[in-house]
Each structure stands twice: as structure tokens, then as C-alpha cells.
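Notes from the 1:1 (GR / supervisor)

We went over the backlog. Supervisor wanted to see one worked example end to end before approving the batch request, so GR pasted a single chain during the call. The sequence is below; no edits were made to it. Supervisor asked that the structure be written out right there so they could see what the output format looks like.
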Amino acid sequence: MSLEMKVPAVGESITEVTVSSWSKNDGDFVEMDEVICELESDKATFEVTAEAAGKLSIKAQEGDTLEIGAVLCEIEEGAAGGSTAPAETSTEPAPVATGESKATGEVLEMKVPAVGESITEVTLSTWQKSDGDFVELDENIAEIESDKATFDLTAEAQGILKIVAQEGDTLEIGALICKIEVTEGGAPAPKASTPDASATQAAPTQSGSETYATGHASPAAAKILDEKGISASDVKGTGRDGRITKEDAASAQKSAPVAEAARPSAPQFEAPQLGGAISREQRREKMSSLRKTVSRRLVSVKNETAMLTTFNEVNMKPIMDIRKKYKEEFKEKNEVGLGFMSFFTKACCVALQEWPAVNGMIDGNEMVYNDYCDISIAVSAPKGLVVPVIRNAESLNFVQIEKEVIRLATKARDNKLSIEEMEGGTFTITNGGVFGSMMSTPIINAPQSAILGMHNIVQRAVVENGEVVVRPMMYVALSYDHRIIDGRESVSFLVRVKQLLEDPTRLLLGV
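Structure output shown during the call:
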């Protein structure tokens, strides 16, 4: 009886595949579950295994493009291996796995989970497991990122991982990301292999001998190599059976140019050569979803708001004197340092409640005013700028604010912020001074209407009571939407913040 094998469904958005290579020849005897060929889509590479033992009859040739469901080959079940089987397999039985793992036959499809009400798509950032790896239930297998945060994807079952989506792919919520062939018991024992010793030393592949996959680039790797102008033959693959992976392609470098003496003839004109270790190479990196979203929003704010910036300066000596006097006792008692952010947050909360337009926003044809102060703190994270929120900051004391700032900043730098921790916010504070900025015009964090920019502290000469003295001064900037905030309100807000910072006792007395 002949079994007809068809091109399997390999993903919701994939309608056709290309036969990359056959690992068996027409007429060969194949064992059940033995890899017989390799298919490529525009997103990934897949191995096809025999659905039965028997004689192989190939119907599609290498390079053919087939639709899902098209006939790939036929297997004549029950046909004896005879002379068509390799000599090694006719004299030695196949090694028996000694692991306790047992396939159940169930294949679990894992799809992109919902990660927030306003998020419709995510980008697959990194696979922490490889295709074919054994994964445990709830084990981290991949990292996905949205325009707001990064999330860990955990295995929904124990079994063998079959990757569908590749790193860098942008997927809609609910799209297929991988499959897990569910197993029972522990992890499977590694397959026994007894390759020839000399072949093992000579071959660069994992199986000990070259196969159809040796030196072959995956679709993602081929694209990277093509962009770099590097031939696949010049790259050593570290993947399964010597396959060139995406990481191999990313780290590949062009071979050194031939020596001057080897040139057949010198051109009539030559550009000046840069000596030493000077390089003029370029590299390209794909923008992350977070970076693209931040870029889009910043441009949108510039185009859709009437944004202005007003400046003032603050004498930081009173705050610095307080910190110097009490920082050790404060830290010993509260297990957290006393920073500038708590002073600025408290001062802004007082000023926001006195000038509610600065704490408001525009929603269509309405102006929304908030009775609470949810202060967004801009944090520079490894993957871009994120803005976690301190809820009801007006009700928190200095200790609570400092602890919340440290907690949110730490989670941001570890890419562990949740959507809930970044949603909302009525006013933003950004501190460019930590990087040495002296003055800037920060862009509003939409849909908010204002943002306060802190800058570096510089010893400058100022006049006090008719005398020139040196004081630690900081420029502060308030960028605001002129559609809801008038000049009187913006300037008065900043003056009030300056007043509270230069006389911090007002924050304690509420005056």
C-alpha cells in the first residue's frame, strides 16, 4: 500500500513552501520518523519526516515551490529495505533511546498571548530554546516585546519544541508562534551515535559527517549574508549538522582583501587608503517595536500639539545641605538613599494641585483634569526609553517615593516592567542631568500635556543680596501643550516648583 505524503501546514500565514533539499534518494528505503527532506518558507526552515517505513518515491524535486497540501512524495509501505538500505543499517540495529520520555501524540499549538488591551502585535525578540529542544512546563522559551514592554513566553506543556516564528518576526495577537510535541516522563536521553573516528574529526557537523544541511543557510541567515555580501561557503555553520544559523551570519565578517601584489593592474585613479585600524564598515540593526513606537509617538506629539518650553533655574544648595546632613541616617533607617527625585516629585505634586491644567490632558473636544498625581518617571532602559508610573504620588512621603523610583527603575533596566506599571500617568519628569545635559526642551509624553526636564548641577556665580556668590545651580525646563495650558499657568507652575525646591521646609509645612 502506498502512503501519499503532502506538504504540511507550517503556519497560519504561510501558503507555500520550497523544497530545499532531499536527504534521501528516489527508491531509498526509509524508516518511520526518519528525516527525508527539508522545506523552506519565507520565515523558517522545516524538516519533513517519513510517516511510515517503506520505499520512497519522490514527486517534487529540489527547488520546486509547492502549496500547502500538495503531494510531496509517496512511501510504499511494507517494502523491504534490501540492498537499498545503507550497509550500516543492515548490519547494526538502530540505537534504542534509554530516556523515560514517551510521546503522547498530542501537538500543542502555542499562540501569541494577549499582553494588554491596546497592544495588537508583538515582535519575537529572542528564542531561548532551539528547534527540537526538550522543554519543561512553564520553562522560559522565548522573549517577546511590544511597543511598551518585554515579556517572557513560557512553555504550556512538556515536550519537544517546534519553532514556527523566527526572531525578528512581527506577529499579531493570537498568531501561531511554536508547537510542542507533548511527552510524558522526564527528558529524553541523548541519542546514541557511533560515527567513524576519522569522520568525526574531519567533519564540522554535529552528527559527525556532512549531510544535506552542511553549509546551508537558513532563510534568515541567507538574508543577512546577502546584505553583507558574504557567500555561504565562507561561513562555518554551528547549527544542527553544520547548518548556518542566524547568529553565524550576524557574526560573519568579510574575508581579508587580497594583497596589493596580487592585483592584475592598478586603476588609473585610487582613493586615498586609510591606514592602521581605521574602519569604514557599516552595520544595520532592525528597529525594535519599542523604538519604532517611541519614534512614531514623538513625531506625532511634535505635529499634533502646540508645544512650547519655558525655563527657570533652581539653587540646589538647600536640598544638597539637607541630603548631606541626613543622608546617612535616612539610609540606615529606611534602607534607601535620599535622592533628588523625591524632592522634585513632591514639589511637582504640590504645584500640579495648584495649577490643575498642567496635570490635565485633551480628549477630543474635551479637557480632562485629574484630582490625583500619577507621576511618570522617564528611565533609559537597554531597549529604549520607558516611562513607568508612580501612582498617587501626592499621597506618598519621601521614603515611599524613593523606594518606588528604585523599584520601577530596576524593573525597567531588567526589562521586567508590566503594562500596568506603564499605563496612565498625568505628568512626566525626566532627568537628563544624569547624562550631563545642561539644558534641553523635552518632548511631551502624550496624551499628557506637560513634562518637566531636570538638568545637571553646575557651580555658577549668582547674585544674592547684592553680593556675587557661587551656588550649585540647575536649569529646569517645562514643555507644555499651549492648547490647554496658558503661559501664565506654565510659568507660575515652574516658579512654584522653584520656590519649593529652594526652600524645602515648605514641602513639610505645606506652605
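Supervisor's comment: The chain has ten helices and 26 strands.
Batch request approved.
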